[in-house]
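Consider today's protein:

***
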Amino acid sequence: MHSLDAKAACFFFGKGALSQMMNWQEITTTDSPLLTPALELYQRSFAEEIREPNEVLIRGIRESSRLLPTVYHFLVGLNEAGQVIALSTGYYLAEANCGFIVYLAVDPTQQSNGIGGELISQMERLFVQDAKAQGKIDPHVILETEREADAHDQEEQVMCQRRLRFFHRQGFRMVPETGYHQPPLHSDTPAVPLHLLIRTKRNPAVFTAVELHGIVRAMYIEKYHKINGLPREMLQELDGKINIGLRSIQLEEIVGHRSITKK
């Protein structure tokens, strides 16, 4: 494994408009007939070192009632033939009023058809419903993705930049460097420094240090502790690496950030 690997949005999604009718469904039980094809797409989409075991995704379904008010989502997109060609998993973090997108995948034969952008929008729709159920509005959406500075070669850097430009087009902005680390996905892999990207309706896109740190802590506890089973001590150590201070945080445009150029 190398440090560029991340589990969120490992595929590049193109600029095209949605070219086919999609049927979006949630997997809410482990006996759903959609679970097996969804897991097969998941297995094809991510390398083993950046892919959580299937059991972690299934545990989210089984433990969903125990997580409340945090809500787990396993969303799949079916084409007109009823085939699973897209998936996303994520959590509505009630305490932080924020949706955390963990995985995004689109069948490689269907990329650049606008499905990636629609997939994010469908996840946001679910997060909005979750927020309303809690008496809240306008939840933020956060995800983790690779840092271009950690690329091992030019090809990796180009792919990382393409993903970042895709997220820029989807309205995400970058959290300035805070020392965030994605917790280990496997017992033999380390924590990985990653970018945090946020899509928000807040204008200007400014977060207090308390707000931002609260989102990260909710990610660590609600997802990585309760579902991945990582010990609190490990997550507290990673939390201690967060360098936010007491300042307010202005989210940055992705395009124009460091080496990211608009193409």
The first helix runs from residue 35 to 45. DSSP finds seven helices and eleven strands in the chain.
